[in-house]
Amino acid sequence: MSELSLSTRTSLPNRLVRLYAGLMLYGAGIGLQIESHLGNDPWDVFHQGLSVRFGLSIGTWIIIVGAAAMLLWIPLRQKPGIGTLSNVVFLGLFADATIWLAPTPDSLAVRWAYLLFAVVAIAAATALYIGAGLGPGPRDGIMTGLVRLGLSIRLARTLIEVTVLAAGWLLGGTVGVGTLVFAVAIGPLTQFFMPRLRFSGAQAQEQTQEQARE
């Protein structure tokens, strides 16, 4: 049985379980990486910077930025799915809940444990989210739209992430070794989890390119 036929036959409840498990795990990963104070991924540098400069929680800014990103879908002719809308609403809530619940680590060893667990969790969450097949994340839809306008995936993603990283750093977001660890590890780890969540390498790559996700 092909992975595509498997995805087609998978029941909606099963896909929704994957979706919300992925969002919960992703939000937990975001919260723990932020709490590690070792450096965030580019988008969360931006979200944290907005929180530092303008107030409101990081999770609230994740929701606001996600909703704003969807507005950019209109000229890019992107169509949201259930997963897209759920991403906008729930990812920030799960991130804020983790930041609120997780003890602030005192030792460097615990901070590194937070960081490493966060990166692994985000990679697994990405595989679950993509596996649900219910729509790309709002930020990833911008990249997919730019690709449809003629940019390569690598160029589109680089332009977006460099822009939000620089803006977030200027606003006061945390850039550090964790940012580098995330950049280096997230791709291989996501690829590792894809087949273990019943996605072949070829299908994982196709889904990632189509939906664009840690």
Automatic annotation (TrEMBL):
| Signal peptide from the UniProt entry | none
Q: Which InterPro entries does its entry note?
A: YczE/YyaS-like
Alphabetical list of Pfam families matching this protein: DUF6198 (PF19700)
Q: Which residues cross the membrane?
A: 16-34, 54-74, 81-102, 108-130, 166-189
What are the entry keywords?
Membrane, Transmembrane, Transmembrane helix
Q: What is the protein name for this chain?
A: Membrane protein
Instruction: Specify the species.
Output: Planobispora longispora
